[in-house]
Amino acid sequence: MIQRFIYSFLLLLISGVTLLAQDFNKLDQYFDSLESHDKFMGNVLLKANGEVLYARSLGFKDVAEEVELEKDTRFRVGSITKMFTTVLVFQAVEEGKMKLDQKLSEYIPEIPHSDQITISMLLQHRSGIHNFTNDDLYDTYFTSPQTREQLVKIIKDGGSDFEPDSKGEYSNSNFVLLTFILEDVYSKSYPELVKERITKPLQLEHTLVGQEKGTNEAESYSYEDGWQEEQVTDMSIPLGAGAIVSTAEDLGKFIEGLFSGKLISEESLALMKEIKEGYGRGLFQFPYYEKVAYGHNGGIDGFSSMIGYLPSEDVTVCILSNGSNYNNNNIILAILDTQFGREVKIPNFQTATLTEEELDQYLGEYASDQIPLKMTFVKEGNTLIAKPTGQPDTPLEARGNHVFEFVQAGATMIFDPEKGEMTLKQGGATILFKRTEQ
């Protein structure tokens, strides 16, 4: 499944857990289990007070050649790029070259409602501009180079989804447009600006704006009867929305540099952290128990990523994956639970084997009164397939006793065949579905 350089992420709040001493041996066992069951390939990093406490590489940067990942292997980091773009915008604001309340019409007037859309709205996903990567048409050109003119036309033709500043809704289009605005303001290319204003001052030796596949860069994979290599997005498309290539160590230095005042002022950082309807300006807020982390996540091709920083603890956590067959949210929780002395449970990946006839009791269409989503279940051989409305088909893993899981999304489905019901548990929510009459 191709990830379009955006990737929703939430650290779950849990309470009532007894604190224990840090146990990095247990964390090693956790990752040993993920690696041996082909659940995760990538690099993970945990830092506190600027010091590396834990770092590990799992799996391969090239599966076919069995070339293992290393700590300085580069990954495409997807929408973490938006943090870099936001820093450049605030640097321009601090230098008097741009204002947050400036209108998009001063730069790219052909975009619908550009005279009502401000720079701040673009940064905070409040512009209403349609997200071009959501369109089916995107799949027809994402591997081919696109010019500025082509991208502006695509975004213009996509129109608006809502009135500017009436709500927040994620759109990669916002940050592609900000890329062009920054290039106009400074009369320099986006890669030049990132290098001169961020990577060089912070000495991020392995970070750049991706173009063609570079040196020591990982391939990306999805999992279907083994790791399958993904198609590659042409990096002329994501630009300031998702084109950065980096390492876990470099991203740790970047977010620490951001929060220590090495890139922008304290006042600008406060505006980045200002959350409205779930969106900051180039930042997300992630709750972890009573603590709060700031950062971003990303997904592009088969890559998935997350960087987070807890200011009150001076703790940085980063995961960069080039192949995930598991819920990355669980991985972040395991790392933070280790750091803060909470128990880490080793996941059980034992699956049950069901016959085709046994799967028949689960088949059919199910609907819920709680959410406007229907799910149809079919079988392929002895595998149960979920077909949510408007979403890709999803093979499920049988756990026995009428329980199935989609581990990448952290979703558990519990069937009651006699009642014709299915209960979906995901992200702390419990949603009841009932089989519809066919």
UniProtKB/TrEMBL annotation:
Beta-lactamase-related domain segment(s): 48-329
InterPro entries xref list: AmpC-like, Beta-lactam-related, Beta-lactam/transpept-like
Protein name listed in UniProt: CubicO group peptidase, beta-lactamase class C family
